[in-house]
Amino acid sequence: MSQITKKTDRRIVRSKLALREALLALMSQKPFTSISITEIVEFANYNRGTFYANYESKEDLLDDMIDNLTEQLLQSFRAPYEHVDVFRIQELPAKSVMIFDHFYQNSAIYTTLMRSDVLPKLKEKMLHALIKITQEELSYPDQDDEIDQELMSIYSIHALLGLIFHWIESEFKYSPSYMQDQLIKLINWRPTSAKTVVKSSRDG
User: Fold this and answer.
1) DNA binding happens at which residues (predicted)?
2) Residue 121 — left, alpha, or beta (φ > 0 → left; ψ -120 to 50 → alpha)?
3) Total count of domains within the chain
């Protein structure tokens, strides 16, 4: 790669990062639908030409930001199994679960997105991406044949993301290590019965 190409590539990376950061900063102040491209470029200290050299619209910029986060999310999700052929879920050490570290390290970004009008888009992209890799990259040799693989993926990923988004909403009340430990406990917990709690009619 030539020196000029390297400089150009670095310039593109810097401008994209600046535009993403500008959009995020503006989204902490107002809804995405109210933000203009002019506001984004002025905040980033670039011109509209630079914006359109990288993106077709502000929606394209938003997609790039969410795609970048999602790719990081997938890398953290793969951490426990990417270097092994088989990993035993019941023997999975809590510290190998890196997904909570990803969200914690990007806590400011996720907090802003959680409070924004693009939250449904964020959840949908992450949900579909995680379901896709669980179906493509993981199989369970001892799985009950009566359990639908697709439904199992949907169920488990909804549960995981529900836990994570609750954690974000609580303003990261617990540490990543606590969440790692709790997730492992939840995965391995297999209740066989539950006691019903019936209120007395006098309490009604």
Assistant:
1) 36-55
2) alpha
3) 2
What is the residue-level pLDDT of the chain in tens, covering all 204 positions? Answer: 555 555 568 888 899 999 999 999 999 999 999 999 999 999 999 999 999 999 999 999 999 999 999 999 999 998 877 777 776 666 666 677 899 999 999 999 999 999 999 999 999 999 999 999 988 887 777 767 788 888 888 999 999 999 999 999 999 999 999 999 999 899 888 878 888 887 655 555
With beta carbons less than 8 A apart as the criterion, state whether 18 and 45 touch: yes
117, 76: one domain: yes
Instruction: Please state, as a whole number, how many other Cβ atoms lie within 10 Å of the Cβ of residue 12.
Output: 13
Q: How far apart are CA 108 and CA 197, in angstroms?
A: 40
The pTM score is 0.83
Q: For residue 53, which of 68, 74, 37 has the smallest C-alpha distance? A: 37
Residue 196 is assigned to a structural domain of this protein = no
Range of the domain at 14: 1-55
Q: Is residue 204 part of a domain?
A: no
Query: The domain spanning residue 46 has which CATH number?
Result: 1.10.10
